[in-house]
Design goal:
The chain is of the alpha/beta class. 43% of the residues lie in helices and 16% in strands. The relative contact order is 0.11. This is Glycosyl transferase family 1 domain-containing protein.
């Protein structure tokens, strides 16, 4: 490999970064960084936090090497639980206008809030304070970006609503690639984001659904060059002789266990289905549990955060993956399950998941508890041929649309474009 020069240096900015973090944006950032390092000198700029939304400064500030990637960590200087709770109340207050879609009443309510916001003389500062409350407040990171921006050919920002992206883009603008990870949530429609979405030189969307959503919410993005990339997957190497981690038929949920991810609804549906049909089907929930209240059911198993090998073992032997979120910009775990040849049962209210299922023909959709029960039955009663068809469809879909080689080619083009 030829010696790299300074213009081959890029920075990836993401709110959290670490092996123990299994959030979609954070895993996406880590996988991309570890692929791009083969062609570029990659620095990851991130916070010291492990927990969201506590921003706990778990990791020491400074530099470390992780899987060949240089990681620069900056302390969150705004760690304040009161502010975090206030943000939580704001989001919960808007949630009810959001789950049922934008009805006339919801539209009127949201419109009144927008008018109130825009009439405030200092609405720019109000919005900036809201971003600060969202965190993580890494002021030294922003200073670093301002002072060192000429070292880098390009900056890749993950996730639109966080402090590092919002304030970082203001200093690197045209040299930046934004991966917004947008989904249909109340904060996306806040007018304060309009300026931020006008700043990147390139926007890399995960799906066409995400592109259409963002261009509708913030038309300024239509003028910015963009493409679709997502994240890549390697075909798994499976040990055919491995033993199932549990003996009962089971489904898996993988990811952050949170109300916002539809987990409480999923647990209720699963428990109701088992009771009504006198079953003992298991649901294995893999990931950190953020639920304060949850359904107590012996058929629902929490593993906590587990290593990659153990996670893949659960996925290899499951009857299928259940993805319960209504709000996804890509859903890496859905694509991972498809690459394993596993059927996916997805929340049909999420447009991204619905399109994955319809295009791949590798799974099923549910909208309520009755649908849920019917689709679980379909998966459990698939014939050997039916299982093979779904497995083939899923693997072909993941291979065709989410190959690393093609994704890196797209990032090469974007990096050259903003770094020209």
């Amino acid at each position: 490999m030829s010696r790299k020069h300074i213009m081959d240096k890029i920075a990836i900015i993401v709110q959290r970064y670490g092996r123990e973090i299994n959030g979609g944006a954070e895993v996406h950032a880590r996988l991309l960084a570890e692929r791009l390092k083969e062609k570029y000198d990659v620095d990851v700029l991130t916070s010291c936090s492990l927990a969201y939304p506590a921003w706990d400064n778990h990791y020491p500030a400074g530099e470390e090497m992780m899987n060949g990637v240089r990681v620069l960590r900056f302390k969150d200087e705004g760690a304040n639980r009161k502010k975090t709770r206030r943000l939580g109340r704001y989001l919960r207050g808007n949630w009810k206008y959001y789950h049922r879609g934008y009805t006339i009443n919801n539209f009127i309510t949201l419109s009144i809030r927008r008018i109130w916001y825009r009439r405030k003389k200092n609405h720019g500062r109000v919005f900036d304070r809201w971003i600060v409350n969202h965190g993580p407040v890494c002021k030294e990171m922003i200073t670093y970006l301002e002072q060192e921006k000429n070292q880098y050919k390009a900056f890749i920002y993950f996730n639109y609503p966080f402090y590092p992206t919002y304030f970082g883009l203001q200093h690197t603008s045209g040299k930046s690639i934004l991966i917004p990870l947008a989904h249909d949530e109340p904060m996306l429609y806040l007018s304060g984001f309009e300026k931020m979405f006008s700043l990147p030189g390139f926007i890399m969307y995960n799906t066409e659904s995400e592109r259409l959503l963002l261009e509708s919410a913030h038309p300024v993005t239509r003028t910015i060059r963009s493409d679709l990339a997502g994240v890549g997957f390697d075909l798994p190497v499976l040990d055919e002789n491995s033993e199932p981690p549990i003996s009962f038929p089971y489904f898996v949920y993988i990811g952050r266990i949170d109300v916002g991810k539809g987990c409480l609804e999923l647990m209720n549906y699963f428990s109701m289905m088992n009771r009504s049909q006198h079953r003992n089907i298991k649901l294995v929930m893999i990931g950190k549990n953020h639920l304060k209240t949850f359904v107590k059911d012996d058929n629902i198993i929490f593993t906590g955060f587990i290593g990659e090998e153990e996670k893949l073992l659960y996925l290899q032997h499951c009857a299928g993956l259940i993805i319960s979120s209504r709000h996804e910009s890509l859903s890496m775990v859905t694509l991972e399950a498809m690459s394993f040849g596993k059927p996916v049962l997805a929340n049909g209210y999420c447009d991204v998941l619905k399109r994955h299922i319809e295009k791949s023909q590798a799974g099923f959709l549910y909208y309520d508890v009755k649908d849920f029960s019917v689709q679980v039955d379909k998966i459990l009663n698939l014939s050997d041929n039916g299982k093979q068809v779904i497995a083939r469809n899923g693997m072909q879909y993941a291979e065709k649309n989410y190959r690393w080689e093609r994704i890196i080619e797209k990032f090469d083009i974007a990096i050259d474009y903003v770094g020209a």
